[in-house]
Amino acid sequence: MRIVFTGGGTGGHVNPALNIASAVREIRPDAEISFIGTKRGIESTLVPKAGYAIDFVEVQGFRRSFSFKAIRQNCRAAYYAVESVHAAKKILRERKPDAVVGTGGYVSWPTVRAAAKLGIPCLIHEQNTYPGVTTRRLAKEASVICTSFEGSETYFTPAEQRKLILTGNPIHVDRITREEARRRLGLSEEEPYLLSFGGSMGAKRVNELCFDLMERFSVPRGIRHDHAIGRVEFSAFSALARQNGLDKKANLQLAEYFYDMPYRQAAADVIICRAGAMTLAELSVRGKAAIFIPSPHVAEDHQYKNARLLADAGAGMVFREEELTPELLCDTVEELLLNPNKRRRIEESIKKFAMPDSADRIAAEVVQLAEQGTAAP
Fold it and tell me: Phi, psi at residue 86, to the nearest 5°?
């Protein structure tokens, strides 16, 4: 059995594919798995580290602007939109997959499109409540469409809806308990613990708000507060921490990235974070009270739509960047940390969104599709 995965640009598209691939291997250890991505995307690093072969095509997105620079980029994007399909076809003819799996990002478009033209069965997975452009464009081509949230079906045509399967987001599910995580981090059972992060690359506004929160609340109250700054802003905010003496505070831990994030999430009482689909899936499985600050820089405002769905069900609190003041964040954190009953209600509500077997369910669909399919000519 041969399966080609495609998805890239960000970890939010690559990690679901890697998790599904791992689950496929659990079902079919003999499966030959490879990826198609771009050299510029994070998949060029993550996929080889996971032990899979990867082929590359050249593709880029369109810009919604009429500036000269945007027009020039859109001309290149239009060229690659055609050429990348031909390049993907060539790779697929060489790999001869029995099925192709797309998890989003620009690179999914040419690969799934090429597979459909070659008669290869395709499964696509949408991580967000509101389907992205790639998913909507490929829905007609796909044999199976896996969605992550109830309500997403309204964005598909009746013919496409017949292909839908609600599976959730395929995260790596660990069995870390709160007690185990707290022992590892040196926390007592009763000690309040606050965790904040803006994603692996970081987010300037989240960093600003959390640094202010440390000075207003975490330091004066002696609250254990760990914050991941992210790669892009790490140098600038590390310097700011030294300038303000935050790097010397025993109750604070600042890092570019926490490689033991599952333990920190499991131990946390309150989490401040963006609202990417995979983060929401992880917090749902762990049953964590969170304050979501969605990124305003994502397509179709999908992070806010993700978080809004949870907040409307009492499963979290969501604030847009422009409305969240340092004072409001401080008051909200204080309320959640000091009101265990409210925190528990949020924890119980967010658990209702958990689908811990998502990767296994999608993998079963992939294997079934591959068994029914035929290799590319």
Answer: -65, -40
Distance CA 251, CA 48 (A): 37
Residues 142 and 299: their CA atoms lie apart, in Å, by: 22
Q: State mean pLDDT over 354-360.
A: 96
Residue pair 34/4 in contact by the 8 Å Cβ criterion: yes
Structure pTM?
0.85
Q: What pLDDT is recorded for position 11?
A: 82
In this prediction, residue 63 carries a pLDDT of: 53
Beta strand 2-6 pairing with 289-292: unpaired
Catalogue all structural domains in the chain, each as residue range(s) with its CATH number.
2-172+356-372 (3.40.50.2000), 178-351 (3.40.50.2000)
Is the predicted pLDDT of residue 64 greater than 60, yes or no?
A: no
Judge contact between 209 and 293, C-beta under 8 A. yes
Q: What does the pLDDT read at residue 65?
A: 52
- Distance in angstroms (rounded) separating the CA atoms of residues 308 and 313: 9
CA-CA distance, 36 to 38, in Å (whole number)? Answer: 7
Spatial separation of the C-alpha atoms in residues 114 and 136, rounded to whole Å: 16
Nearest alpha-carbon partner for 337 in 179, 195, 185: 195
CB 289 within 8 Å of CB 268: no
Strands (E) located in 81-128: 99-102, 122-125
Percent of the chain as helix, strand, coil, to the nearest 5: 50, 15, 35
Quick one: pLDDT band at residue 364, thresholds 50, 70, 90? very high
d(CA 81, CA 113): 10
pLDDT in tens, 255-300: 999 989 999 999 999 999 999 999 999 999 999 999 999 999 887 8
**Among 244, 202, 220, 216, residue whose Cα is nearest residue 325:** 216
- DSSP annotation of 248: G
Residues 209-236 pLDDT 10s: 999 999 999 999 999 999 999 988 999 9
